[in-house]
Description:
The chain has helices spanning 2-27, 152-164, 169-180, 186-212, 252-258, 274-277, 288-302, 305-321, 328-343, 351-362, 369-372, 381-397, 403-421, 426-431; strands spanning 125-127, 134-136, 216-226, 229-237, 242-247, 263-270, 281-286.
Amino acid sequence: xxxxxxxxxxxxxxxxxxxxxxxxxxxxxxxxxxxxxxxxxxxxxxxxxxxxxxxxxxxxxxxxxxxxxxxxxxxxxxxxxxxxxxxxxxxxxxxxxxxxxxxxxxxxxxxxxxxxxxxxxxxxxxxxxxxxxxxxxxxxxxxxxxxxxxxxxxxxxxxxxxxxxxxxxxxxxxxxxxxxxxxxxxxxxxxxxxxxxxxxxxxxxxxxxxxxxxxxxxxxxxxxxxxxxxxxxxxxxxxxxxxxxxxxxxxxxxxxxxxxxxxxxxxxxxxxxxxxxxxxxxxxxxxxxxxxxxxxxxxxxxxxxxxxxxxxxxxxxxxxxxxxxxxxxxxxxxxxxxxxxxxxxxxxxxxxxxxxxxxxxxxxxxxxxxxxxxxxxxxxxxxxxxxxxxxxxxxxxxxxxxxxxxxxxxxxxxxxxxxxxxxxxxxxxxxxxxxxxxx
Length: 439
């Protein structure tokens, strides 16, 4: 009877412990500093106690000795207006016909009011007097059913504003009307975007092939609202190329479809999502910034000393990766500290802390790849930044309306983002996507 009562007490104590941990988890609010939530989801201003951004010790604003930038005086102004004195301000004598001296010059930079212009193309023909065949001049535009069509500059602008600047349909129509006196329907805008995406498909596919052979690749994925259902936008990128892909699932099936052989030549930088870690790659690098957010969550929720030590160690790895040359002794000390931390017993720690430790034991080598492969970044920030544009587009528009539209967005966004990384003007890349493959 006593043994039964003691077992019952232990069971109830265990249940009480689990409920206490659950209460702490629920009371700890997820923010952009301790989770993958964007800053826009922060309901209140979070404390700087565990801020990921370290203080520089400098005052805000321009620093002492900083060379300021101002508008430079143009030596070739488009318009010159001369302001001469017509009459004397004192005696009202006529001075307009007299020679006057230049006292000052000032320039104003402004944008002229823009209106569209129409170019009419007149096609001529003639019957050859020698062979009797009719000849027609070749028109420099695509053949269409309508006798009137929009030019490339308007199509470039529509695609750029829709994809890169994330304008929703109504605001895009309004801007075109107010700024350029163009009244373009939703259907025409959709046709411009989808048509341009179709023209870019081959280049889009070649960007994926280039990335599959690259030394470094970062990847991330995010859920997208597609008319109330969830699709997934994937991104693979490095310093020169960006590839977006619209998929119906977040699992390894998508990766197999994109890269059947994986990325055997690449160091792949990702978060700890299982499908990403399953990818065949030369080596993996875990995003240390993402891991630091996990640590902050455990510190705020459970006051975990182990998570605090891991957070400090992550900071050290990131700092070392910024050095031009890392001393071998520092690498060894860091590896020893990491190994000691991951092997330390956590008998009294909450389950989530233990779970994190166990998962990192399996991934230990992927935490310090950046210390040995100096071209590898310790974080996946560039992938998160690339994919954030998709979330902005979704948030402004409410959702994507069709799978075709989301796929078109992925194709065009890949070309534009790649062009900007290569310092190519976005309009030039939209007009001639092949430019991004010349690098």
